[in-house]
Design goal:
Blueprint (H helix, E strand, L loop, with lengths): L6 E4 L2 E5 L2 E2 L4 E4 L3 E5 L3 E2 L4 E4 L3 E5 L2
Parallel strand pairs: 1-4, 2-5, 3-6, 4-7, 5-8
Organism: Pseudomonas syringae pv. maculicola
InterPro entries: CdiA_FHA1_rpt, Filamentous_hemagglutn_rpt
Protein name: Filamentous hemagglutinin, intein-containing
């Protein structure tokens, strides 16, 4: 998934991807944020935020 300078938001996010490129982007949840990334996670100057629990499962 590519989120360059973009915004992904919701009320509870469960995101599964082979790769996440969130450079200068934002992934934001009003509840829990669950990320499962099988490969590369690039988050330079990016934000991963939640109002609840944040869980990152990196599989590589």
């Amino acid at each position: 998934m590519t989120n360059l300078r973009g915004l992904v938001s919701g009320n509870g996010i469960d995101l599964t991807a082979n790769e996440l490129n969130n450079q200068s982007g934002s992934v934001s949840s009003d509840a829990d944020l669950l990320l499962t990334i099988a490969g590369t996670l690039s988050n330079q100057k990016g934000e991963l935020t939640s109002a609840g629990n944040t869980t990152l499962n990196a599989l590589s």
